[in-house]
Amino acid sequence: MRAAGAASAASLALLWLLGLPWTWSAAAALGVYVGGGGWRFVRIVCKTARRDLFGLSVLIRVRWELRAHRRAGRTIPSIFQAVAQRQPERLALVDAGSGARWTFGQLDAYSNAVARLFLQLGFAPGDVVALFLEGRPEFVGLWLGLAKAGVEAALLNVNLRREPLAFCLGAAGAKALVFGGELGAAVAEVSGQLGKSVLRFCCGVLPEGAAPDARLLDPLLQEVSTAPLAPPPAKGMDDRLFYIYTSGTTGLPKAAIVVHSRYYRIAAFGHHAYRMGPSDVLYDCLPLYHSAGNIMGVGQCVLYGLTVVLRKKFSASRFWDDCVQHNCTVVQYIGEICRYLLKQPVREAESQHRVRLAVGNGLRPAIWEEFVQRFGVRQIGEFYGATECNCSIANMDGKVGSCGFNSRILPSVYPIRLVKVNEDTMELVRDARGLCVPCQTGEPGLLVGQIDQQDPLRRFDGYVSPSATSRKIAHSVFRKGDSAYLSGDVLVMDELGYMYFRDRGGDTFRWRGENVSTTEVEAVLSRLLGQADVAVYGVAVPGVEGRAGMAAIADPQAQLSPDALYRELQKVLAPYARPVFLRLLPQVDTTGTFKIQKTRLQREGFDPRQTSDRLFFLDLKQNHYLPLDEAVYARICSGAFAL
Fold it and tell me: Which residues does 516 contact at the CB level (< 8 Å), separation at least 6?
């Protein structure tokens, strides 16, 4: 009854906020007070109404645009074609590395040639062609051209080699591979596994001796017409556009399905949530084989006609110089990029740029304000999302540390929720009715989103692998018989509905009866060590309950003093959060989107036989770190050292 009262009170409050007569205002205030928990709920309404109404307007606008495009039978290629026809001479893509500048007319012509070529080569709508090249204008023209022919692109991570590369090609069922000349050697390594059935095309110059069975793509494109296809393939907004692979931080990558409406939803949501406009120039130094760079970033060019400046690889030393040179007003970040920028010495360009907005995810709360103050960026557009998820959220009002919000006034408008999980197994906790248990304010939980395949904002398209798809779906979550997407990530929500990223599922570990947040410990260690790369994770110790904390720290000069570090840790970390083990290594592995890779580190644990890196063990009796060799390792495993 109380929940129903709160919902009705919220509805009345919304009417009041929309400016209805004072009688409605009085009724709304009374309804809120009686049914919604008194003045505490009134406070929530007053503090969040403006934010929530703007968020609601963004959702409505994206939904309306999608509905209009669906009714008109448009797809991503046809939307782009209309944009290009309106402004053929405007700059679409700029390659900051090579200096290449592509207008919308040139990008449209190139993609038309790609479409015609692959149709002439015998490819049909629904076939898959893998793209394996670094981020540059040709990359966009290739997947866009394939889409114009109804062919689906599989966007391969350029860091893949050997077995993982062959696996990803096979997982999507690719009939051809288009690769950059810079990756010819990597292709040659897997040629035997691909067989002759997979055609190979080289975009650019092919190094001598690399992939001798590949055909050069550029001469083939020069021989075909650049006119649009007539008629275009019969595709709709719910059909597959391309595949994006998960980063593989917890195993082999999975091919996530991106349909046309999902591409539009992600790009449009960012466009309207952060008020981007035609005068904006976006700087995109993220990998184009992931959704942040290719959808959130390049999508502003493809769908809304903005100029996007590409750099194939993030460069901390070139970042602000590029922004100044190309008059960028919006930049993208992800993972640890902001920390890398703060590590750079102060340079003149960082105060000369015109950047007003930084959009991305992974900006640690510990450096949020420092980044804003040093670089003078007025708005941080932190968001939470994944290529395949249906529960994306966004920080639209600059709340420090928050990755987004869910309305406390009208939570059912966007049906997402934090639910309780078993802290050790990440299994859903259910009540007596078999439904998931929602988290209370301030209580960490798994983010889930209710699935509705008829709603483009709530659908879940999953992966090429049916088993991988099924593992991300739970049933009877909000109500009996429903389905929900499991994000795998732990967040926490405050009283006003702001959400804060806590950890990837499985990264939070339990030690001495306490939950340890790896991201919090990483932030502390990184700050103490001058923004060094740090990975924190839990490792199992024979005969000991829980998992002991271990920190892998980048120490390329072998100058770090474990004891000096421990003296500082005693001042800032609770005893249970201080790493029991240290691993000092030349560099910490990251994914293409600058997320720390922990899978190998966790597997190797603190066993000195698994690595030549320097290992240390926290001896609580002596109150300092000891070098960890095989003898010490044996004593720990036998229980001789008390943890």
Answer: 508, 509, 510, 538, 549, 576, 577
Name, in order, each residue with C-beta under 8 angstroms of 604's C-beta and a sequence gap of 6 or more: 610, 611
Report whether 295 contacts 268 (CB < 8 A): no
Candidates 318, 139, 368, 87; CA nearest to 244 is 139
The residue assigned the tokens 């979550």 is: 477
Q: By C-alpha distance, which of 42, 20, 592 is closest to 312? A: 592
| Residues 119-162: tens digit of each pLDDT | 999 999 999 999 999 999 999 999 999 999 999 999 998 878 87
Place of tokens 């943890």: 643
| Contacts with 109 (C-beta within 8 Å, 6 or more apart), sequence order | 226
- C-alpha to C-alpha distances, 177 to 130, 150, 152, 163, 221, nearest whole angstrom: 5, 16, 12, 16, 16
The three-class DSSP label of residue 641 is coil
Nearest Cα to 88, choosing from 115, 61, 112? 112
What does the angle CA 590 – CA 206 – CA 254 come to, to the nearest 5 degrees?
35
pLDDT tens per residue, range 311-337: 999 999 999 999 999 999 999 998 778
Strand order through the sheet with 379-384: 101-103, 91-95, 307-310, 281-284, 330-334, 357-361, 379-384, 393-394
pTM of the model as a whole: 0.80
Cβ neighbours, 10 Å, residue 350 = 19
Eight-class DSSP state of 293: I
Q: Is the peptide bond before 231 cis (omega within 30 degrees of 0)?
A: yes
pLDDT for 245-266, tens place per residue? 975 444 567 899 999 999 999 9
b/e map of 8-24 (b: 16 or more CB within 10 Å)?
A: ebbbbbbebbeeeeeee
Report yes or no: 300 and 273 within 8 Å, Cβ to Cβ.
no
Tokens of 488: 């795998």
Give the count of beta carbons closer than 10 Å to the beta carbon of residue 257: 20
Each residue's pLDDT tens digit, 81-132: 999 999 999 999 999 999 999 999 999 999 999 999 999 999 999 999 999 9
